[in-house]
């Protein structure tokens, strides 16, 4: 090549300059210039790196979602188990409270019956006490009326 040709390549090309028209052969139909083979290799390496990083990120997200799904499943299962246990405990508590209430009612009814019976016994005791007093009085009167 001639020395002048090299200087044209090294200079920036204005889109209005005649050099831009000459360099039009290196442009594709979109108006962009095609990268050189070394630039293409660098672009491909960068794309490969981006692809590997994207794949690693996707795998990381996939692992995260699997872990979250597993943890949520365990939490849900644990919550269901706890709710079942709570239901059983509440049922047993209800049965125990009902049993205690029934026994309490029986005790109260027994106390009321005992109270009624004691009232009858009190009347009997009062009669017996009265009878004893009458007997003592009768004995005293007998002693006074019949001297020994």
UniProtKB/TrEMBL annotation:
Residues 1-42 are annotated as: Disordered. Residues 23-42 have a biased composition (Polar residues). Residues 45-138 form the BLOC-1-related complex subunit 6 C-terminal helix domain. Transmembrane segments: none annotated. It comes from the Eukaryota. Pfam families: BORCS6. InterPro entries: BORCS6_C. This is BLOC-1-related complex subunit 6 C-terminal helix domain-containing protein. It comes from Brassica campestris (Field mustard).
């Amino acid at each position: 090549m001639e020395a002048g040709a090299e200087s044209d390549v090294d200079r920036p090309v204005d889109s209005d300059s005649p050099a831009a028209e000459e360099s039009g052969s290196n442009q594709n139909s979109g108006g962009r210039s095609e990268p050189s083979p070394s630039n293409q290799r660098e672009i491909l390496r960068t794309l490969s790196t981006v692809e590997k990083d994207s794949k690693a990120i996707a795998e990381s997200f996939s692992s995260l979602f699997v872990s979250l799904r597993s943890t949520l499943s365990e939490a849900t299962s644990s919550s269901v188990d706890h709710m079942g246990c709570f239901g059983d405990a509440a049922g047993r508590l209800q049965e125990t409270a009902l049993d205690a209430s029934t026994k309490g009612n029986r005790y109260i009814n027994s106390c009321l019956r005992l109270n009624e019976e004691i009232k009858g016994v009190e009347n009997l005791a009062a009669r017996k006490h009265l009878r004893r007093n009458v007997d003592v009085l009768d004995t005293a009167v007998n002693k006074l009326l019949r001297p020994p």
